[in-house]
Amino acid sequence: MSKVVSIFIFISLYFFSVETTAQSTNSITTSDKINSTDSSNKKKIKKFNTRTATLRSAMIPGWGQIYNKKYWKLPLVYGGLGITASVFQYNVKNYNLLRQAFSYRTDTISANDALIDPRFKNLSTNAIQSYRTSFRQNVDYTVLFFIAFWGLNVIDATVDANLKAFDVNDNLSLQIKQGYSPMANTTGLSLVLDIHSKKMYASK
User: Fold this and answer.
1) What are the tens digits of pLDDT across the range 2-61?
2) Which domain holds residue 95?
3) Domain tally for the chain?
4) N or C: fewer beta carbons within 10 Å in the chain?
5) Does 115 reside within a domain?
């Protein structure tokens, strides 16, 4: 079970660390494009619908990432869900075999002991019961991790769609300007936070 926890933590951290790097790269690319064009022309940015991204990821994992055009995230989404699903199947299979073995071992028909899976024949009744309980718990844990991965996929698509609306180019910055300040009623140096909106058009 510790392996599943480690995989979940690794994929989660990698998911967001790569996203941060990608946002920084996009910021630099966007800035270069803006600086190379006429400053009087404002770049139109496609507006992604947050609700659409959320619903698509909730229905089909990865669909929201496709909508946000973040195709590189698909291996992470399906990798996390696929590994969790495989571990779930492994735990369910062994739980059923151990439950059956415990039933054969505790009944009054000694001939049924021959029906026990070869891997568990040499185990004591208490050991079979203990392993059965352990695998039953692992089944519950893997279901929770699967739901968590699915939820992480939805959250990522929602946040990513929201971030599309933010201006992350170099024109959004603190600037030091010299001149008259109406608020201070004096002339000098001022620290100005330049915030401007972007032109957007709705996604079809």
Assistant:
1) 555 555 565 555 555 545 444 444 544 444 444 444 444 444 555 678 899 999 999 999
2) 2-34+43-171
3) 1
4) C
5) yes
